[in-house]
Design a protein that fits this description.
Layout (H helix, E strand, L loop, with lengths): L1 H15 E6 L2 E6 H4 L17 E2 L4 E4 L3 H13 L10 H11 L8 H7 L1 H15 L8 H8 L2 H6 L4 H14 L5 H23 L6 E9 L7 E12 L1 H23 L4 H6 L1 H22 L7 H5 L16 H12 L1 H28 L10 H12 L12 H19 L2 H20 L10 H4 L10 H4 L22 E2 L11 E5 L6 E4 L4 E6 L4 E6 L20 E6 L6 E6 L5 E2 L1
Parallel strand pairs: 1-4, 11-12
Antiparallel strand pairs: 1-2, 3-4, 5-6, 7-8, 7-14, 8-9, 10-11, 12-13, 13-14
Helix pairs in contact: 9-10, 10-11, 11-13, 15-19, 16-17, 16-18
Length: about 575
């Protein structure tokens, strides 16, 4: 009797157990454990699922076994921990597959888990900075400059051919040796223009103004008078400015004409500065020519100070400057906080030193008002210390010491954050420079795993038919990333048609794909027509005609050498798109 009871308990225990084969690693648990978290994939396991193997009495899922160990522990303990040996996006993808919320990660793992989000944001920023120095392909240039249709047709005009070359020559200084020479010339003129702008204000570089005054004498004669009160820059600087601005004007026009996106080019802050700086020279030249008699014309020269802003054009030639500017943008919150505490400290210590100096009688008191104290507090907190204003009482000196200490602490606190941001951007830039841009992905991630359409709750209904996912035919690559449309009207048995391969928005371009056989695979979600070599066809080969008539079909064509696959879904006008 006792032996029978033990057998009964063993049978009940075996019935409650469930075996999960995840990527070749078997996991055993109880069905009650999987029921702890409802509305998830594991809580709805049934033997009718395509993942169930009745021979081995197990459920097979071709997923990451390491992540699943944490998923299963979450069912057991109710605590979800992040494995440090996997990447964050992979962990999120696995949780999404099993129907779990990533926000349930425990606080002890949250900082490590969210690091990939910061990395993704940093990489997105670096992508926008356009730091790549690798030469793009012809197809990428055609897409960038908007003549991809002509490129696919093979009808590219001479202007479309040289336009990307001109743009690269003037805007991408590392694209070729000629572009490097143009970049060096551009930097040379920028430096010469800035040096000329500064030197022409030096007294030794200026000459007195010579004016023709009418001397009122008895005979009304005229005399040349040397006016030493007003001076002009030497004429040599004028010629330098003419040559430099001629180059800048030529450069702006060429870059504007060859720009792939003229609106983006015009709205660029660096281009706006360059345009205003160049126009200021021509405005100044026009006023000197036609309105030289204007009084107080020197104020117009003040606007020429924007020419110094041409230094920002150097960011095109230095990735370090781009990273530095982006560092300040990323540290905007910390810099704003720094300014706030500086202003707060300046106001407080300016008021304190004003009243501290008034406590004792001091005829040499420099702090006659709080606004003057603001200037003293600013230069003290920033550790500049001009010495033009100093407290002369003991109380004022004590306030000055506190002001200096507060300034050091206030400025030092956000500096590590700024340095950390710069180091982060710089390290990612260096790593990105070593990463090959033209990495060939043999198989997209979407094709590596079978699709599980529909919500988790409908998984039991969507997987009732078909073979287990581990026995599905393999997909071995992607055929022609730029060839994305297939336009056959009828495909018959053992036919070898000329498929139309192109992008959906362009006219088809004929291309022939050899076909040996056609195999049908039926499922409740999609109807797949898989074209494979006869040697690996596992089902009878029925004739397939007018495949474009069914809106739910997906056409998959594999070349006979097993080298590539094209998958296209039905679009408009009876065509199939990737």
């Amino acid at each position: 009797m006792q032996h029978q009871n033990m057998n009964a308990l063993t049978n009940v225990d075996n019935e409650n157990r469930v075996v999960l084969n995840i990527g070749g690693i078997r996991h055993e648990t109880y069905k009650a454990t999987l029921k702890k978290i409802p509305a998830t994939r594991l809580s709805r396991l049934t033997e009718q699922l395509a993942n169930y193997d009745p021979v081995l009495n197990e459920y097979f899922f071709d997923r990451h076994p390491g992540v699943f160990a944490q998923v299963l522990n979450y069912y057991r303990t109710g605590k979800l921990h992040y494995p440090t040996d996997v990447c964050g996006p992979l962990f999120e993808e696995e949780l999404e597959f099993w129907g779990l919320d990533s926000n349930q990660v425990e606080p002890c793992c949250w900082m490590t888990y969210t690091q990939h989000r910061d990395t993704q944001e940093t990489l997105a920023v670096l992508e926008r900075l356009d730091l790549d120095t690798e030469k793009p392909t012809d197809e990428e240039l055609a897409r960038k400059f908007g003549f991809e249709e002509d490129y696919m047709r093979g009808t590219v005009s001479w202007w479309q051919q040289i336009k990307p070359q001109i743009w690269s020559l003037f805007d991408e200084p590392y694209s070729s040796n000629a572009a490097k020479i143009v970049g060096i010339v551009s930097v040379f003129f920028i430096v010469i223009s800035i040096i000329s702008f500064c030197l022409k204000t030096h007294p030794d570089m200026r000459v007195p103004v010579i004016r023709n005054y009418t001397v009122r004498t008895a005979n009304g004669s005229q005399a040349w008078v040397l006016d030493k009160t007003q001076t002009n820059p030497h004429v040599f600087f004028f010629y330098i400015e003419c040559v430099c601005n001629a180059w800048f004007t030529f450069e702006i026009l060429v870059r504007l004409i060859s720009s792939p996106n003229k609106c983006q080019f015009i709205l660029s802050s660096v281009n706006i500065i360059d345009f205003i700086a160049t126009m200021s020279f021509f405005v100044d030249l026009t006023l000197q020519k036609f309105a030289s008699h204007l009084e107080n014309a020197d104020i117009l020269e003040f606007f020429s100070i924007i020419r110094i802003m041409r230094l920002f054009k150097l960011t095109r030639h230095s990735s370090g400057l781009k990273i530095l500017i982006q560092t300040f943008r990323a540290s905007a919150k910390e810099l704003t906080l720094l300014v706030f505490f500086l202003v707060l400290g300046i106001v407080i210590f300016a008021s304190l030193v004003y009243y501290a100096e008034r406590i004792q009688t001091n005829p040499n008191n420099d702090f006659i008002s709080i606004p003057l104290g603001l200037w003293w507090a600013l230069v003290t907190m920033t550790t500049v210390g001009y010495g033009d204003m100093v407290p002369k009482t003991y109380v004022g000196m004590f306030v000055g010491a506190l002001c200096a200490l507060a300034g050091v602490l206030t400025i030092a606190l956000p500096v590590p954050v700024i340095v950390s941001n710069f180091a982060m951007y710089y390290s990612h830039t260096q790593a990105r420079a070593k990463l090959p841009k033209k990495r060939r992905r043999v198989l997209p991630v979407e094709q590596l795993r079978p699709h599980h359409p529909g919500p988790i709750g409908a998984a039991a209904h969507n997987n009732n038919t078909g073979t287990p996912n581990r026995r599905q035919p393999p997909k071995m690559g992607q055929f022609g990333a730029s060839i994305v449309a297939l336009c056959p009207k009828n495909v018959g048995l053992h036919s070898n048609p000329a498929f139309m391969l192109c992008k959906p928005e362009f006219q088809p371009k004929p291309a022939t794909i050899p076909i040996q056989s056609i195999t049908n695979q039926q499922s409740t979600e999609t109807k797949t027509i898989l074209v494979v070599p006869t040697s690996i066809a596992t089902q009878p080969i029925p004739p397939v005609n007018n495949i474009s008539s069914s809106p739910s079909k997906t056409l998959i064509i594999q070349s006979t050498d097993k080298a590539a696959i094209v998958e296209a879904k039905k679009g408009t006008d009876d065509t199939y798109f990737l």
